[in-house]
Amino acid sequence: MLLHIHKSKIHRATVTEANLNYVGSITIDEDLIEAAHLLEGERVQVVNNNNGERIETYVIKGARGSGMICLNGAAARKFQVGDIVIIISYALMSPEEASSYKAVTVFPGENNRLVY
């Protein structure tokens, strides 16, 4: 049996852009992608703390150091610049793997920059 387990998340990032005229996805600063152990094309859930919306989409790399969190396509109707979001990834794991796995959480600082 495989379980869907919380793998990583970017907690309380700020939306910097919402682009309705794009095919879809979420564009994330490459620094945040790496810190959260995400891969380009990986499926993520995005939770909007301002209005309760939840969507599933996939990751696109944004410019490194830009702080970009951009909701693209139809998601741009559910997220606005300035909204606070949580971006969550999950992984399929056996119960044995899940029992010892430690999820990664990234807490972006001002302008969605990494805080060391």
Please, could you describe this protein's structure?
With 116 residues, this protein is mainly beta. The chain has a single domain, classed as Barwin-like endoglucanases. The protein has helices at residues 30-35, 95-100, and strands at residues 3-14, 17-19, 25-29, 43-48, 54-62, 69-72, 84-93, 104-106. Strand 4 and strand 5 form a beta hairpin. The mean pLDDT is 96.
Strands of the largest sheet, in order across it? 2-6-3-5-4-7-1-8
Output the CATH class name. Answer: Mainly Beta
Label the structural class: mainly beta
Label the overall shape. Answer: globular
Count of individual helical segments: 2
CATH topology: Barwin-like endoglucanases
Order of helices and strands: EEEHEEEEHE
Features:
116 residues, mainly beta, Barwin-like endoglucanases, eight-stranded mixed sheet, 2 helices, 8 strands, 10% helix, 45% strand, globular
Question: What is this structure's SSE topology?
Answer:
Blueprint: E1 3-14, E2 17-19, E3 25-29, H1 30-35, E4 43-48, E5 54-62, E6 69-72, E7 84-93, H2 95-100, E8 104-106
Parallel strand pairs: 1-8, 2-6, 3-5
Antiparallel strand pairs: 1-7, 3-6, 4-5, 4-7
Write a short abstract of this structure:
The chain is mainly beta and 116 residues long. It has a single domain, classed as Barwin-like endoglucanases (Beta Barrel), CATH 2.40.40.20.
